Automatic annotation (TrEMBL):
It comes from the Archaea. This is CorA-like Mg2+ transporter protein. The keyword Translocase does not apply. The keyword Transmembrane applies. The chain crosses the membrane at residues 305-330, 342-363. Keywords: Membrane, Transmembrane, Transmembrane helix. One of its GO terms (cellular component) is membrane. It comes from Candidatus Methanoperedens nitratireducens. GO terms for molecular function: metal ion transmembrane transporter activity.
């Protein structure tokens, strides 16, 4: 026996786990929160607890409730929490096996997964939020670094109080679910500003001619990758919201008024997608302009260097011709003396001038003389 190892859920048959014959291990979670409308009516009631068993008797006296669980490892603890609260053992693993988002309807229970986004510089951190739904309960499970629903729990009794006791359970569930999804969508959108501010900082770096060019290309790639990752989460969220908006699931309301709320969520996500794409276009165009300026600066520098090289070539040609003449006439075979000084200097000077003019004329005629544009 390995006493130091935790109990393995997968080794226990599903029928025994669901029947409660074998006790389930406790999840590794922070303090959970629950708000519920009592069956007898009246104001919403709040309860804090450390594990699912703390809420079971409380939920029996509730007409509808929202239970939020922050955990350290959602893949390990979600199944434990779900089974402890009466959900099927395969629901949580099935949802978590999807990428970014998931929608699972099993008539008497439902499961959703939505991405929660956090942005640090150009690092887009995506964490899943699990929604488990049955006729009188919505359970949200997320990792401890996701705090948006924890903050919302402070005002949970306020929006629960607005739910009319006369509504059917499907309507109550839909109202709570849309409020939770709306909170996640809005908090995701807040992090788009982080990407925007980092894009502005990158623009400042590009404007500085002294910035090391080796760091610019990776930063531009990181910014584009951050935008793409963020856009992926928006599209994933839209898929789930669109699956809900038609009200096909048994646990979702058929009320046109409440389904219109889901439609508003879909419109919000579409608007966020449009704004994100617009921001991407603005940042991309700005970076292209700055890159064009940088390229123009490099082109001006290259033209100046080419102009210097051209003039050096002309001067070299101009010096080469008289130097060749002087070398030839300086040979002893010509027997030159002081009496030849006048015509010799005239020949050297005139050949220098003619060679310089001829080299410049040929370079200019061939269009090899670079033009520097400031």
């Amino acid at each position: 026996m390995n006493e130091g190892k935790p109990a393995q859920i997968t080794s226990i048959p599903d029928e025994k786990k669901e029947s409660g014959c074998i006790p389930l291990p406790l999840p590794d979670s922070k303090q959970a929160f629950c708000v519920a409308l009592p069956i007898s009516g009246g104001r919403p009631i709040k309860l804090m607890g450390d594990n699912p068993h703390d809420f079971i008797s409380f939920l029996k006296d509730s007409s509808v409730a929202w239970l939020n669980f922050p955990v350290k490892d959602i893949k390990k603890d979600a199944e434990i929490i779900a089974m402890s609260l009466g959900f099927s053992s395969s629901l949580a693993p099935t949802i978590l096996s999807s990428y970014l988002s998931a929608y699972e309807d099993r008539d008497t229970e439902m499961g959703l997964m939505l991405p929660a986004v956090a942005v640090k510089k150009f690092d887009v951190l995506i964490s899943p939020i699990l929604f488990l739904i049955r006729k009188d309960l919505i359970v949200t499970i997320h990792e401890e670094n996701v705090t948006r629903l924890v903050r919302l729990s402070r005002y949970a009794d306020a929006f629960m109080r607005k739910i009319k006791p006369t509504l059917i359970l499907e309507d109550k569930l839909t109202i709570i679910l849309t409020r939770l999804i709306d909170e996640n969508i809005n908090r995701n959108f807040d992090h788009l500003r982080q990407i925007e501010s980092q894009g502005d900082e990158l623009s400042k770096i590009l404007m500085d001619p002294k910035s090391p060019r080796g760091m610019i290309a990776p930063e531009i790639h990181n910014m584009k990758h951050a935008l793409i990752s963020y856009m992926d989460t928006l599209w994933a969220t839209l898929d789930v919201v669109n699956s809900l908006r038609h009200g096909d699931a048994e646990l979702i309301s058929d009320s046109p008024k409440l389904l219109a709320r889901v439609g508003i969520l879909s419109d919000d996500v579409n608007r966020h997608i449009a704004l994100s794409e617009h921001m991407s276009d603005v940042l991309a165009s700005g970076l292209e302009v700055l890159q064009s300026i940088y390229n123009n600066q490099l082109q001006i520098l290259n033209n100046r260097l080419a102009l210097v090289m051209t003039w050096l070539t002309i001067l070299g040609t101009a010096v080469l011709v008289p130097n060749t003449i002087a070398t030839v006439l300086g040979n002893a075979a010509f027997d030159m003396g002081p009496k030849d000084q006048g015509w010799y200097l005239t020949l050297i000077i005139s050949s220098t001038i003619i060679a310089t003019w001829a080299a410049y004329w040929w370079v200019n005629k061939k269009g090899l003389m670079p033009k520097v544009v400031e």
